[in-house]
Design brief:
Number of strands: 20
Helix content: 25-40%
Oligomer: single chain
Distance between the termini: 29 Å
Pfam families: Peptidase_M17, Peptidase_M17_N_1
Keywords: Aminopeptidase, Hydrolase, Manganese, Protease
Number of domains: 2
CATH topology of the largest domain: Aminopeptidase
CATH superfamily of the largest domain: Zn peptidases
InterPro entries: Leucine_aapep/pepB, Macro_dom-like, Peptidase_M17_C, Peptidase_M17_N_1
Strand content: 15-25%
Organism: Erythrobacter rubeus
CATH class of the largest domain: Alpha Beta
Structural class: alpha/beta
Radius of gyration: 24 Å
Shape: elongated
CATH architecture of the largest domain: 3-Layer(aba) Sandwich
Largest sheet: 9 strands, mixed
Protein name: Leucyl aminopeptidase family protein
Length: about 475
C-alpha cells in the first residue's frame, strides 16, 4: 500500500509553500493582488480559476501554488487532489479563505491522489511526497484511516487473480485479527460442502491453490448489537460453463471487489472501536471450468434449505452470497450490509460512478444516502419490487439463480439475495463496480471503492461510541 502516514501533518509554523484557492468568479479580483510578472505566468499557464486547474507562480526565489475550485470556502473531498498529484515534492499550506477550513474534507483527496499501485513495476514518473499542513490535527487520524481503507480496496482489486485468490483473501482477514483482535474461523473442504453447499459448488472446479472457502471473523463485545458485513469474494470469474467472452473476462480479477470493500469496512469498524458485535463473512471462490464444474440445469442445495436451479453459471456471485447471508442471519443481527460486484445491469443503469444500493428499510437507505452525499460517496437506491419475484421461479426447484428476460437485472439479483436474508432483518445490498475506467482527481483508474465511505459514516452515526 502507498505510504501516506506523513502526507498530512499538524501545522506548527514550519516552512511551507502557500496554496491559494480561487474560482472563476473570483479570479480577476485575486489577480489584482499579483505582480505583472505573476499575472503573466498564470496567463501563460492558461489558468482562469476553473475547477481542478493548477497554477505555479514565481515568488522571489521560490513559488506559490494556485488551485481552481468551485468554492474556496466550501471544500469537497476532491478539490485539492489535482494539486496533490501535480505539484512538485514539498510541504504546502492553504492560505486565505480556504485556510479557515483547515483543509477539512479535502484532506482525503490529497491523500488518495498520491496512491500508486507498484506491486509489479515502479512508477518512474512519480514525484516525491507532497505534504499538507493543517491546523486541525484532531482530524488527521480519521482521514488517514479512511484513505487507507480506500487504498486497501484499490490494492486488492488491482492485484491479479493468481496473487489474489481465496487464500490471499483469507490472509487479509488474518491481518485484521492480528491488528485489531477478534477471532477468525475458516471453513473449507468437506465442511464447506456440508455447511455452505453453494459456496462449495461454485468454487469446486478451481485447483487446490484456489480452493473455495468462507472466512468468518468475529470481533467486539457479545453484549453489543450484532452487525454483519458480507463481501462477495469471486477471485476470478470465467463465467463457468456459461463462459464469458474474452472481453468480458478481461477485468474479472475485480470480481472480488465486494470482499475488498467488506474487509476494508471491517477494518474501519474495528479501528474505530464501534460498539458492535461484528461478524465479517467473506465467501471466496474462483468460478473456474473443469470436469467437476457446476452446470446449467443443476439444482443446488443451500445452507438455508432452499433448492436453487442453475439457469446460468455466470450468475455465481449471488449463490455464494446466499449461503453467507444465511449464516449472517443466524446471528439475529441488527443490520446486515453486503457488497458485491454483482450485475452488469447496475452499471448500465448508473454508470461507473455510483454504487447501486438496495435496502429493506427506508430509514437505513436514507441514512446511507445522506452520509454518502456528505462525504462525496453517494449511493443510488434501486428498488426491490415484489412484482419481479416471479422472474426467479423454477419449475423444479424453490428458486432459480437467474431470469431469462432482459429486464431489471440488478433488482432481480437483489430479490434473489433477499430470499436468503432472515425475515424482518434490516439489510442493505451494494451492487458496486469496484473499478474506475477513467481517472479523476484523487481517483485513479483501476480498482476503487464505491459506497465504502457512505457505509462507514452511516455506521459511525448509528453505532459510534
Amino acid at each position: 500500500m502507498t505510504d501516506i502516514k506523513d502526507l498530512i501533518q499538524p501545522d506548527r509554523g514550519q516552512d511551507a509553500i502557500a496554496i491559494h484557492l480561487v474560482n472563476a468568479d473570483g479570479f480577476d479580483e485575486f489577480a489584482k493582488t499579483l505582480s505583472a510578472a505573476q499575472r503573466a505566468s498564470l496567463t501563460g499557464q492558461k489558468f482562469e480559476g476553473r475547477g481542478y486547474q493548477v497554477g505555479i507562480v514565481p515568488d522571489g526565489d521560490g513559488f506559490f501554488a494556485v488551485g481552481g475550485v468551485a468554492d474556496p470556502g466550501e471544500l469537497s473531498s476532491w478539490c485539492l487532489a489535482k494539486l496533490a498529484d501535480e505539484l512538485p515534492e514539498g510541504t504546502y499550506r492553504l492560505v486565505g479563505k480556504a485556510a479557515e477550513t483547515g483543509a477539512g474534507p479535502a484532506m482525503f483527496g490529497w491523500l488518495t491522489a498520491q496512491y500508486r499501485f507498484t506491486r509489479y513495476t515502479e512508477d518512474e514518473n512519480a514525484a516525491g511526497p507532497r505534504i499538507l499542513l493543517t491546523d486541525q490535527p484532531g482530524r488527521i487520524d480519521a482521514v488517514m484511516a479512511e484513505a487507507q481503507a480506500e487504498m486497501l480496496v484499490r490494492d486488492l482489486v488491482n492485484t491479479p487473480a493468481e496473487d489474489m485468490g481465496p487464500a490471499a483473501l483469507e490472509a487479509e482477514c488474518e491481518k485484521l485479527v492480528k491488528v485489531h483482535g477478534g477471532e477468525l474461523n475458516v471453513t473449507k473442504g468437506d465442511a464447506l460442502e456440508q455447511g455452505y453447499p453453494m459456496v462449495h459448488a461454485v468454487g469446486r472446479a478451481a485447483d487446490r491453490k484456489h480452493a473455495p472457502r468462507i472466512m468468518h471473523l468475529t470481533w467486539g463485545s457479545e453484549s453489543d448489537p450484532v452487525l454483519a458485513i458480507v463481501g462477495k469474494g469471486v477471485a476470478f470469474d470465467s463465467g463457468g460453463l456459461d463462459i464469458k467472452p474474452g472481453s468480458g473476462m478481461r477485468l474479472m480479477k475485480k470480481d472480488m471487489g465486494g470482499a475488498a470493500h467488506a474487509i476494508a469496512l471491517a477494518g474501519l469498524i474495528m479501528g474505530g472501536r464501534l460498539k458492535v458485535r461484528l461478524h465479517l463473512l467473506v465467501p471466496a471462490v474462483e468460478n473456474a471450468i473443469s470436469g467437476n464444474a457446476f452446470r446449467p440445469g443443476d439444482v443446488l442445495n443451500s445452507r438455508k434449505g432452499l433448492t436453487v436451479e442453475i439457469h446460468n453459471t455466470d450468475a455465481e456471485g449471488r449463490l455464494i452470497l446466499g449461503d453467507a447471508l444465511t449464516r449472517a442471519s443466524e446471528e439475529n443481527p441488527e443490520l446486515i450490509i453486503d457488497f458485491a460486484t454483482l450485475t452488469g445491469a447496475a452499471r448500465v443503469a448508473l454508470g461507473p460512478d455510483y454504487a447501486a444500493m438496495m435496502a429493506r428499510k427506508d430509514d437505513t437507505a436514507q441514512a446511507l444516502v445522506k452520509a454518502g452525499k456528505a462525504n462525496d460517496d453517494e449511493p443510488w437506491r434501486l428498488p426491490l419490487p415484489e412484482a419481479y419475484r416471479e422472474y426467479l421461479k423454477s419449475d423444479i426447484a424453490d428458486i432459480a439463480n437467474a431470469h431469462t428476460n432482459p429486464y431489471a437485472g440488478a433488482s432481480v439479483a437483489g430479490l434473489f439475495l433477499d430470499r436468503f436474508v432472515g425475515e424482518d432483518i434490516d439489510w442493505v445490498h451494494f451492487d458496486t463496480f469496484a473499478w474506475r475506467p477513467f481517472a479523476k482527481p484523487g481517483r485513479s483508474k483501476g480498482g476503487t471503492a464505491y459506497g465504502l465511505r457512505a457505509a462507514w459514516h452511516m455506521l459511525k452515526n448509528r453505532f459510534g461510541n
